[in-house]
Amino acid sequence: MIQPFAWETAIVETLEQVRPVLVHVAGTDRKRRQTAFGTGMVFDHWHVICNAQTVDDAAEVVVTLPDGTKSDATVVGTDPVYFIAVLRLAERFPGPLPRWRPTGELQVGRFVVAVGYPLNLQLNATFGIISTVDMTLYRPDRIPVDGLIVTQAPMHPGNTGGPLVLLDGSIAGMNGIPWSHGMNLAVQGDVVRRVVNQIIEFGRATHPWLGFSGQPDVVDPALAQLFALPVDRGLVVGHVADNGPGKRAGIKPFDMVVRADDQPVIHAGSIRKVLAYHRPGERARLTILRGGELIEIDFPVEEIPRLASAS
């Protein structure tokens, strides 16, 4: 059993490993004469990321880098689902870049530290375990938010927008979203990187609409053996919307979706996360079991209607 002093040493060492990618963000709204402050982190040598609320309506954004120097920044874009803002620095960041841990390597029970710079570069940290690796929650407007980590490390304004860090210094995700339902939530690192890269390249991220819903279930063992399926479960379709991509693709009630672009399907969020790597107008491949037959269909990638109209 690890002694208490060893835990303390591990946490302190973790903070030192992640400190070089922590930044402080100040967004000033000149009309309202207000400045919002928040934590951010380096993404690459030209971009940093933070919580979108820090820079909403900001005419001037200043980023304080890990060494204390200040850099002007411009807002490249913000994401309306994960509340992530992408900022471009006026000058190239010369320091080290963050080391992200692939989401597939995360495990329930792993210890994590939620880190931030609330004000004046004073380090802020909370400690806990990962309670859930992959949760989907629905906003009040019923828009699904996939790829959430639930942790016992408390989230508050001091560390929201900063990294959720494993004890080896690798980053599991990005801390906090505003409508957390009393839970401590972080966005999976894989999701953060996908959203940020899409904002940098295209101006906005993809948030796909399925147009069908269902319940997770296990695959009949005989069928799994017959088709040599690499998965033992899938999503059984219960409802198909009349005017949605599911209907247009030919999805029917009682279909079991078992793969999306060759990735196993555990729940509806598994499908959306695969589709999200495509751009609207492209097509993905879904593998389904229907009446004892394994078939593949081309599925159109479409944006959630309310988000598409807002853009």
Question: What does this 3D model show about the protein?
Answer:
The structure is a single chain. The protein is of the alpha+beta class. It has 6 helices and 18 strands. The protein has helices at residues 4-18, 189-202, 221-226, 245-249, 268-275, 305-310, and strands spanning 22-29, 34-42, 47-51, 60-64, 70-78, 84-89, 111-116, 124-138, 144-151, 163-166, 171-175, 185-188, 212-218, 233-240, 256-260, 263-264, 283-290, 293-300. Strands 1-2-3-6-5-4 form a 6-stranded antiparallel beta barrel.
Q: What is the topological layout?
A:
Elements: H1 4-18, E1 22-29, E2 34-42, E3 47-51, E4 60-64, E5 70-78, E6 84-89, E7 111-116, E8 124-138, E9 144-151, E10 163-166, E11 171-175, E12 185-188, H2 189-202, E13 212-218, H3 221-226, E14 233-240, H4 245-249, E15 256-260, E16 263-264, H5 268-275, E17 283-290, E18 293-300, H6 305-310
Antiparallel strand pairs: 1-2, 1-4, 2-3, 3-6, 4-5, 5-6, 7-8, 7-10, 8-9, 9-12, 10-11, 11-12, 13-14, 14-15, 15-16, 15-17, 17-18
Strand percent estimate: 35-45%
- Estimated radius of gyration: 21 Å
Q: What is the string of SSEs from the N terminus onward? A: HEEEEEEEEEEEEHEHEHEEHEEH
- Give the termini separation: 53 Å
Helix/strand structural class? alpha+beta
Average pLDDT score? 90
Strand order of the largest sheet: 1-2-3-6-5-4
Major β-sheet annotation = 6 strands, antiparallel, barrel
Count of individual helical segments: 6
Strand count: 18
Poorly predicted regions = none
* Molecular shape: globular
